[in-house]
Design brief:
- β8 and β9 form a beta hairpin.
- The strands form 4 sheets. The chain has a 3-stranded antiparallel β-sheet with strand order 3-4-5. Strands 1-2 form a two-stranded antiparallel ribbon.
- The chain folds into 3 domains: about 45 residues, no CATH class; about 70 residues, no CATH class; about 55 residues, no CATH class.
- The protein is an alpha+beta fold and about 230 residues long.
- The chain is built from 7 helices and 9 strands, in the order ββααααβββαββαββα.
- Helix content is about 35%, strand content about 20%.
């Protein structure tokens, strides 16, 4: 039986056993240590060190072995058990944001009974004492989506909500277009085909009116020919 020697890990100070042959070989190779495991070796020797350019180049373009592969049933069972034990729940989860965060639309989301919910809708439900209907919306008085105080919220519908934000009708931004007759650049609020745009000069306006009159006369002639 190989002779065992008790050693002390220089990193974690744990006691462990090694054979005399392994100890002599490590001394001959002048290996650092002793370490009780590979984990202690990595933590002691490589923590805080930077990879060389050669090492970085070897990692570029490499596809991970588990990319696109599903979790094995054994791993799914382990993760499910951790979730049930609370090891990955709430603040122990790497994606936990404190239970209250701002979504990309600018609204505040909170967790209610373990599910994400818009805070302003939850506050209004507490005021009314009932769940909100799907066609019921909430308007913020000061237009601040993060201010969900009860006095800042108003229950409304989709049409009424649109009028609150646009009391003078829908706001249309002017768009750049080219006059189809003189090719001059103009700004227009027209929402249709920009190829039909004509500038405001009298020459282009008269030319547009002549085209409209000719088209009207052509339709009338076609109608008379069809009735005769």
């Amino acid at each position: 039986m190989a002779k065992m020697i008790e050693l002390t890990c220089i990193y974690c100070k744990a006691q462990f056993l090694r054979t005399l042959g392994n100890v002599n070989q490590a001394r001959k190779n002048q290996s650092p240590g002793p370490f009780c495991s590979k984990a202690c070796i990595n933590r002691a020797l490589y923590t805080g060190t930077k990879k060389s350019e050669k090492a970085k180049a070897s990692y570029r373009g490499r596809i991970p072995w588990n990319k696109g592969k599903a979790w094995s049933p054994a791993m799914k069972a382990v993760l499910q058990q951790k979730a049930l034990n609370g090891n990955r729940a709430m603040e122990k989860n790497g994606h936990w944001r404190g239970g209250r965060y701002r979504n990309p639309d600018g609204y505040i989301k909170i967790r209610v009974n373990g599910k994400a919910k818009l805070e302003h809708r939850h506050v209004m439900e507490q005021i009314l004492g009932r769940p909100l209907k799907r066609n019921e919306l909430i308007h913020h008085h000061n237009h601040d989506k993060t201010d969900n105080r009860p006095e800042n919220l108003v229950l409304t519908t989709a049409s009424a909500h649109m009028k609150l934000h646009n009391p003078h009708g829908p706001h249309r931004k002017p768009r750049r277009a080219l006059c189809r007759l003189c090719q001059q650049e103009v700004m227009t609020l027209y929402t249709g085909d920009l190829a039909r745009i004509v500038c405001s000069s009298p020459i282009c306006k008269r030319a547009q009116q002549r085209e409209a009159d000719q088209a009207s006369r052509g339709r009338k002639r076609a109608k008379r020919a069809a009735n005769s």
